[in-house]
């Protein structure tokens, strides 16, 4: 049976169907925040605008069969793009970027995660493509159009006018959208997924060309900025506190601050880590932020080793793995430190092998250095307990002093656990991710406790400083409902979201005795200057954007990769400036005590820091895009 639609060219039918579908996906499957009617309107029109733009190209094909072929393959292709973004979004609450597409090896390794991210009903996304496919085959004669040249130009003109209208509204709603595109959600919300991908492509080519044209003349301006705004002159009183000691750095997968000293079913979630917080040899930082972008663990490693920001698109380990750097392992090598990374995963994951060479890491113990079997693996691979157990022999064989980084794996999304390793019941909410997070975190807590025991047994403990740092969040904003239930809050506001980006930082120096909890605003960007200072190593000519966490004159804010920031007084996110203590947005209507304070509010108290944050992020980007370290000879200067 043939059903008859009102006669309408197929490209228009395809554009309408695709527009409706994309709108539904935007509205209900992505978690896009809409603040006003105008944003609602822009979000509604942009899928139709891009759909028309793409499908209207078909009118330029004269032969009916070619026109039909173009429409059906396009319908399939664009649907696939929506689908791929959706799957990606479920994992990262973010949209795909071009550099990400080239991380094929990682994408395939995502294996176990990906299956949990695809849902049976996703098949509905392909329904309109199937209809178009059917119509394009069965009713091609009726649905094809044959315009004279003027008609074709007209169709093109209409699509461009629609696009211009969309961009105009977008720019009105969010001025400087294209120049300040920190946040991909703004872009998608305003210009749509497809135009966002085109934009991303343009930005990509632009940044790629930066390396070619860079000649080192960019450096003095950057160095001046750093000298004026970042570097501190005075050494902190912890300078040299761990001089000559080994550094054992534990990169704790997905460990967030909110579980520390917190409970579930009336039990502590992390009993061992809690005991470390109050241990007299531990400095615990409870306002320490992760600053990663799309490169997750690798971005956190990048921050730690370089005190540079990762990139806003893609993983810098991949996109700029061949650059020159002046990283921590390289600097401390001059003080006779050997460096090693221990992580039971493919060496190619996140392009680690290539990047570690650029960072000056001496040894990389990857998956093949471990005995990995069915029984001792789960989720992403070797479980943390056997991982630490099997690592001790490598530590013992290393020349001392050493700097060794352990990257754990078990507490990774989707937080799968074997029954025998589970020592706390999962949480009970609508989010399996959050539910399973707790037993996985508890397992990590136990694994780290065991590791401390092994370090003591092996005699390495006394001569080492142990740093434990969460690499990035484990629970994304997609689980906010469950998270608000656990934290006993009505909702998770953008302010809370930023607070949730805190990860634990423990610096444990056996025998130190002065340990305390430090609540200054700190972040991953601070790790390199902090470790250097604790080891008593000066690197005056170094280029970096963080500060020693123990320093008195630290810069007053921590910038997140998306341009948000946290300062002593404020939290700036989603275009809103919050009072950090109260969590209340600061608006010109906010009642204040004095008139000067009121004036301050009106001038937007967050702007001065915002400008610094923007400058800092873009200087860091320029260093990486231009591969500018290749123009400095640190060896000679030091
Ligand atoms: C993989 C491990 C986890 O080797 O670092 O990666 P993540 O997804 O957290 O970046
Ligand atoms: Mn990670």
From TrEMBL:
It comes from the Bacteria. Coiled coil: none annotated. It is a multi-pass membrane protein. The chain crosses the membrane at residues 9-29, 41-61, 73-92, 112-133, 153-170. SUPFAM superfamilies: Alkaline phosphatase-like (SSF53649). Its main location: membrane. Residues 582-603 are annotated as: Disordered. This is LTA synthase family protein. It comes from Oceanobacillus longus.
